[in-house]
Amino acid sequence: MKKWIIIIVSIIVIVVISQSWITYHKTVTYKNKEEKTAVQKAEKHYKISSSQISDVTYYNGKTPYHIIKTKRKGQDVYLWVPDAKKGSYIERKVKDGITESKALSIFYALKYDTLKVVSVKLGAIDDVPIWEITFLDHHKHYNYVSLTFDDGEEIQHILHI
């Protein structure tokens, strides 16, 4: 009887580990495929070389975007590549917008109830480039504040999710 329990538990553990690995692998493969597609769209639209791309991030908003940091005409730029046809391609020189640290400074000056900043990432709302700041408040609710990339103006906040 003891052997049967060990065998059954072992089989269950193997199945759970296998399913976890398969799910992880599918997710990573999908993410890499979507990233590659975004880079190809950027190469075609902006006439850039993928060898100059230094970073690719993803923003899942009303209109999802991949944000690509690259060099173009000798300058560091961010390129917003829409996932769907309804979004616009957006380009901004890195030096023409606020930095991540400046966005955080502006955010802290807004005096939101902040326990912990979870992430700061680029995105776009209605074709306006933004810094999206995700944070936890003292009740451990998720919150989002969006500041424009160009000047740091708050254009959206979603609180107590």
UniProtKB/TrEMBL annotation:
<dbReference type="InterPro" id="IPR041401">
    <property type="entry name" value="TseB-like_dom"/>
</dbReference>
<keyword id="KW-1133">Transmembrane helix</keyword>
<protein>
    <submittedName>
        <fullName>Peptidase M4</fullName>
    </submittedName>
</protein>
<feature type="domain" description="Cell wall elongation regulator TseB-like">
    <location>
        <begin position="37"/>
        <end position="82"/>
    </location>
</feature>
<keyword id="KW-0472">Membrane</keyword>
<dbReference type="InterPro" id="IPR046350">
    <property type="entry name" value="Cystatin_sf"/>
</dbReference>
<keyword id="KW-0812">Transmembrane</keyword>
<feature type="transmembrane region" description="Helical">
    <location>
        <begin position="6"/>
        <end position="24"/>
    </location>
</feature>
<dbReference type="Pfam" id="PF17881">
    <property type="entry name" value="TseB"/>
</dbReference>
